């Protein structure tokens, strides 16, 4: 695997062994990148994404005020917030996730950001988001989840300052629930309250009040948000459901308040909401399970292992098992659940904006590594052995280095960093002459005819934007209409700013400011038997045109005393047709006529191929 050289791993190990005095310059030199510069630019990007009336401190000078009537038609002030990517829609789910991850970045690495002179800019970026989220939550059980719609917006190529597209606002309420969006917004408010707890306690209390109300709303009125805000479905559909967001919100509320009822919720709903059943190897705006699992594992590590975890020791250990599996999967030591990599070493999940999963994984690995190191532990891998914190951090560094230019194309996928970076970013505001340079109105279709199809660099440099990045073979085309690769998003940068702060600090790592003591943890482990059993058998074989084909039957059995719901199955090395399961966003699912597996019951699916048996494993499930 060419993902990261042994030299890079060795350098990371040396860096961890050095005294703390070897600081930023040494750390940056070790990786060959100026992490402090990249950190500064990663935060600056958010100013290019601002909607609303821009402040006097605005540094991205080619942007101007926009969306000043947002919410007016609905009788509510929804001015402000962030555009998610290269369009002019304010999508609530990715915006809230962005705020959560910016906040977690500051919680873990705020001291390092302060040392780099960027903490003020980071907290300003968070507050720009939370100020909007507060406005979007005018009543306990009402949350506005979107302004504008992707269909009308994508029909036009306009600067946000010129927008003539629909600015309709869409809301959630008890008759139109949306637990993913309400839960994620609750998580964002809770995490941000920790950021402002010391510097602005009154504001922190306000955020916490909103967070508690939103969590109760999300939990009491359960439902998929994209069934209520249907215009979001084509752009930010919820494929993982809302169980992960409910757990995610509870975990953050526990961190922010220390209230045992939120930890009780996290533990008591671990089975029913999938917290200990999902073994997914990607983390992002849709699926939060790895983030929940890492937060729960951190709770266990801070509580001296089993002894301090009390009645929840067993379930927190099961959360930690899944957090360990995520970490090991990123390193290629997670068995069949291991993450694919490109020939150049980037973790790879999909063609469209793959970088979002690279930055989120790098942040989770860095933060988890610091907490494991503080507890004197590592991540236990399913095939045996332990992944040391230094290995996790070295791999996180390798992914950041890839983004910054240490890749086969020697291209930085952060705009404005390095010698070679994307010039035709898929971004309306950046690709049309600035309204400040030429205030003449650019119409919906004139934007396409005069600006979108130009084969020249954008007139405005969107510094710090981290684009979608290359394909599975490390190929990349810097073309404005290649939106899968050249569009940047806020949720690409939010976790990246945290890991960049960690790397800029060198040995002066993290450990977070969750309000609990970091304590050395017990290294005991209590593996639980997996409740889902998978058995494969070759039931027939035949020869055709010199090839031997085999029919494999896969039996999936529920060994739990509870009922299995929403079972997701991973299959790799599958070269033939499969019957008895349906393809889904995260692997395969049982047919609709088998919605669940009762205790002791089995389901069977079959496939045929002229090859050894495929790898089959459980990706996720809920036990009720």
Automatic annotation (TrEMBL):
<feature type="domain" description="Carbohydrate binding">
    <location>
        <begin position="532"/>
        <end position="610"/>
    </location>
</feature>
<keyword id="KW-0119">Carbohydrate metabolism</keyword>
<feature type="active site">
    <location>
        <position position="478"/>
    </location>
</feature>
<dbReference type="Pfam" id="PF09478">
    <property type="entry name" value="CBM49"/>
</dbReference>
<dbReference type="InterPro" id="IPR008928">
    <property type="entry name" value="6-hairpin_glycosidase_sf"/>
</dbReference>
<dbReference type="GO" id="GO:0030246">
    <property type="term" value="F:carbohydrate binding"/>
</dbReference>
<feature type="signal peptide">
    <location>
        <begin position="1"/>
        <end position="21"/>
    </location>
</feature>
<comment type="similarity">
    <text>Belongs to the glycosyl hydrolase 9 (cellulase E) family.</text>
</comment>
<dbReference type="GO" id="GO:0005576">
    <property type="term" value="C:extracellular region"/>
</dbReference>
<dbReference type="InterPro" id="IPR018221">
    <property type="entry name" value="Glyco_hydro_9_His_AS"/>
</dbReference>
<dbReference type="Pfam" id="PF00759">
    <property type="entry name" value="Glyco_hydro_9"/>
</dbReference>
<keyword id="KW-0732">Signal</keyword>
<dbReference type="GO" id="GO:0008810">
    <property type="term" value="F:cellulase activity"/>
</dbReference>
<keyword id="KW-0624">Polysaccharide degradation</keyword>
<feature type="active site">
    <location>
        <position position="487"/>
    </location>
</feature>
<keyword id="KW-0378">Hydrolase</keyword>
<keyword id="KW-0136">Cellulose degradation</keyword>
<dbReference type="InterPro" id="IPR033126">
    <property type="entry name" value="Glyco_hydro_9_Asp/Glu_AS"/>
</dbReference>
<protein>
    <recommendedName>
        <fullName>Endoglucanase</fullName>
        <ecNumber>3.2.1.4</ecNumber>
    </recommendedName>
</protein>
<feature type="active site">
    <location>
        <position position="426"/>
    </location>
</feature>
<keyword id="KW-0325">Glycoprotein</keyword>
<dbReference type="InterPro" id="IPR012341">
    <property type="entry name" value="6hp_glycosidase-like_sf"/>
</dbReference>
<dbReference type="GO" id="GO:0030245">
    <property type="term" value="P:cellulose catabolic process"/>
</dbReference>
<keyword id="KW-0964">Secreted</keyword>
<keyword id="KW-0326">Glycosidase</keyword>
<dbReference type="InterPro" id="IPR001701">
    <property type="entry name" value="Glyco_hydro_9"/>
</dbReference>
<dbReference type="InterPro" id="IPR019028">
    <property type="entry name" value="CBM_49"/>
</dbReference>
């Amino acid at each position: 695997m060419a993902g990261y050289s042994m030299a890079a791993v060795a350098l990371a190990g040396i860096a961890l062994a050095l005294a703390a005095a070897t600081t930023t310059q040494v750390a940056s030199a070790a990786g060959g990148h100026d992490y402090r510069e990249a950190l500064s630019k990663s935060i600056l990007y958010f100013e290019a994404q601002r909607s609303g009336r821009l402040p006097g401190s605005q540094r991205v000078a080619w942007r101007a005020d926009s969306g000043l009537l947002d919410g007016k038609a609905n009788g509510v002030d929804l001015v402000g917030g962030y555009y998610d990517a290269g369009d002019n829609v304010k999508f609530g789910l990715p915006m809230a996730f962005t705020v959560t991850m910016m906040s977690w970045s500051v919680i873990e690495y705020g001291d390092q950001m302060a040392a780099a002179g960027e903490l003020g800019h980071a907290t300003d970026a968070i507050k720009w988001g939370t100020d909007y989220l507060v406005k979007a939550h005018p009543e306990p059980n009402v949350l506005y989840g979107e302004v504008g719609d992707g269909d009308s917006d994508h029909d036009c190529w306009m600067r946000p300052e010129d927008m003539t597209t629909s600015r309709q606002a869409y809301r959630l309420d008890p008759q139109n629930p949306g637990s993913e969006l309400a839960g994620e917004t609750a998580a964002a408010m809770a995490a941000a309250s920790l950021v402002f707890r010391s510097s602005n306690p009154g504001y922190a209390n306000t955020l916490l009040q909103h967070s508690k109300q939103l969590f109760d709303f999300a939990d009491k009125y359960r439902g998929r948000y994209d069934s209520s805000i249907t215009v979001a479905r084509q752009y930010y559909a919820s494929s993982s459901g809302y169980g992960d967001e409910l757990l995610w919100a509870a975990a953050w509320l526990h961190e922010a308040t220390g209230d045992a009822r939120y930890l009780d919720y996290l533990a008591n709903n671990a089975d029913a909401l999938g917290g200990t059943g999902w073994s997914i190897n990607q983390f992002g705006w849709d699926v939060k399970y790895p983030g929940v699992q890492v937060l729960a594992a951190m709770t266990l590590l801070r509580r001296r292992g089993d002894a301090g975890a009390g009645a929840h020791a067993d379930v927190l250990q099961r959360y930690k098992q899944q957090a360990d599996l995520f970490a090991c999967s990123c390193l290629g030591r997670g068995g069949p659940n291991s993450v694919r990599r490109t020939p150049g070493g980037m973790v790879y999940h999909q063609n469209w904006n793959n970088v979002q999963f690279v930055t989120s994984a790098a942040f989770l690995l860095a933060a988890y590594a610091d907490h494991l190191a503080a507890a004197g532990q590592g991540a236990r891998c399913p095939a045996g052995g332990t992944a040391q914190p230094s290995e996790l951090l070295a791999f996180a560094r390798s992914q950041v280095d890839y983004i910054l230019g240490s890749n086969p194309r020697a291209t930085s996928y952060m705009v404005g960093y390095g010698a070679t970076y994307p010039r035709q970013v898929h971004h309306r505001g950046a690709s049309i002459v600035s309204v400040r340079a030429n205030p003449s109105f650019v119409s919906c279709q004139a934007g396409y005819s005069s600006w979108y199809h130009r084969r020249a660099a954008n007139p405005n440099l969107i510094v710090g934007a981290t684009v979608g990045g290359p394909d599975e073979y490390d190929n990349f085309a810097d073309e404005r209409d290649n939106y899968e690769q050249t569009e940047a998003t806020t949720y690409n940068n939010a976790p990246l700013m945290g890991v960049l702060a960690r790397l800029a600090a060198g040995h002066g790592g993290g450990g977070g400011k969750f309000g609990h003591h970091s304590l050395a943890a017990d290294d005991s482990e209590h593996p639980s038997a997996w409740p889902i059993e998978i058995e494969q058998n070759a039931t027939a074989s035949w020869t055709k045109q010199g090839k031997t084909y085999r029919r494999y039957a896969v039996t999936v059995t529920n060994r739990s005393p509870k009922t299995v719901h929403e079972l997701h199955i991973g299959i790799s090395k599958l070269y033939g047709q499969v019957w008895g399961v349906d393809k889904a966003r995260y692997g395969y699912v049982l047919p609709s006529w088998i919605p669940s597996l009762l205790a002791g019951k089995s389901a069977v699916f079959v496939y045929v191929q002229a090859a050894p048996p495929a790898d089959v494993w459980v990706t996720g499930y809920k036990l009720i």
